[in-house]
Amino acid sequence: MQIYFLIVNLQEKMIDRDITEKLLSSGRKFPIVTLTGPRQSGKSTLLKSVLTDYNYVSMEDPDNRLVS
Question: 32 in a domain, yes or no?
């Protein structure tokens, strides 16, 4: 039971990232913001939580890559 409680609490609160202010600044200056990094590292989650008014497109979808 104790482990389950810890997992639920970790999912409710995201860890504050040093790059958050840079993302906010970039979001005010540019119409498109790209964040790159290793797979499964929380890039999309971070962007969606910081830049809430942006539309998101995954470049993993081959059709999206063709259009871009």
Answer: yes
